[in-house]
Amino acid sequence: MPITPHAVPDLQACSNPMSETKPTLSSDEAAAVEREVRKGRAFSLSDAIGRMGGDGMLKGESPVPPIEQTEAAIANYLRAHLDDAGGVLAEVVRRCVTTSEILQENFDQPAAVLVAYLNHVLESETVLKDLVRDADAEWGRTIGERPHFDREGHPADPDDPYTLASVRSALTKLVETLRLESARGELA
User: Is 74 within a domain?
Assistant: First the structure.
């Protein structure tokens, strides 16, 4: 059966409920509606968090503060890209970065924070030695063995996963990887 012009409804004449404005409620009316809705519901932790935020909480934003997002991005990057034979260097570097002033000043730029911190470590022999010592101590706690600390004037222990040379090399490679990825636009 062919469609005639009379069989097609007049689209202009149809009201569009999506375009109509909603009636505004006074604060007393809104509170009464909210009480009515809550009568049959059990109170949950989600409700408490939502109430604490008040009206307009988040509005499309992440509930995770930007500084914590940066910390998480740095931790993920370290786990994925840092050459870490003993398995604890990434965590030690992450812990040091998250307590540094560099993070506080650039909390919305994870790549810049990490590069600045790594350069700071690589430019200072004292800071590098402290980082290696912390990695050795963390490795010892994790493995349950006595750590192999570097000793001035002695050759590095062959069983030590974190020597000055190995950590310097790993951090230098990481900085180069960061720079290459940043130049290609792969990092934020």
Answer: yes
140 belongs to a structural domain: yes
pTM of the model: 0.64
CB 70 within 8 A of CB 103: yes
Q: Are the beta carbons of 97 and 54 closer than 8 angstroms?
A: no
Classify residue 151: in a domain, yes or no: yes
Backbone φ, ψ for residue 21 (5° rounding): -80, 145
Q: Is residue 173 part of a domain?
A: yes
Domain span at residue 113?
66-183
Residue 105 to residue 95: CA distance in whole angstroms: 16
pLDDT in tens, 155-178: 777 778 888 999 999 999 999 999
Residue with tokens 């590098």: 128
CA count, 13 A, side-chain hemisphere, 50: 5
pLDDT tens-digit map of 73-130: 999 999 999 988 788 999 999 999 999 999 999 988 999 999 999 999 999 999 999 9
Q: Which amino acid is at 63?
A: P
When divided into structural domains, the chain yields a total of 1
Distance, CA of 18 to CA of 31 (rounded, Å): 24
